[in-house]
Amino acid sequence: MRLWILAGAAALGACGERASPVRSAGHVPVPPRISNAPVPERVNEALAGQPAARLIAQFGQPHLDMSEGTARKLQFAGPICVLDAYLYPKGRGEAVVTYFDTRQRDGSPIDPASCVAALAKRR
User: Fold this and answer.
1) Residues 5-32: pLDDT tens digits?
2) Does some domain include residue 9?
3) What tens digit of pLDDT does each residue of 72-95 get?
4) Does a structural domain hold residue 69?
5) Which pLDDT band holds residue 39 (cuts at 50, 70, 90)?
6) Is residue 101 in some structural domain?
7) d(CA 15, CA 122)
8) Any idea what the CATH number is for the domain that residue 107 is in?
9) Of 42, 22, 6, 50, which Cα lies nearest the Cα of 115?
10) Element (H, E) at 90
11) Cα 94 from Cα 117, distance rounded (Å)
């Protein structure tokens, strides 16, 4: 009888616990937008509106270079951080950076100016 009471108590205690979600081995979560804080103007000036050739001259060969239609993504990775630059054509002109994102190698936030400086120093 005592065994049944203990087993019932253990089963009820487990009801309140949440099961952790199951993820497939191939699933890599995409980090959400880290911050809505404004990006310092110098970083915006250094990246926004720049063509791919200028980014490559500043940061070296990209770790990743992807195109889809007229859009292009360049990813620069260093030992400290990763910079993703998204380029889109302006009118009929050359594709330029219209958006960028920075993160530490483990996906945690990093100040964009620090990341840009770290990537430029490795050149």
Assistant:
1) 444 444 444 444 444 344 444 444 444 4
2) no
3) 999 999 999 999 999 999 888 999
4) yes
5) low
6) yes
7) 53
8) 3.30.1450
9) 42
10) none
11) 25
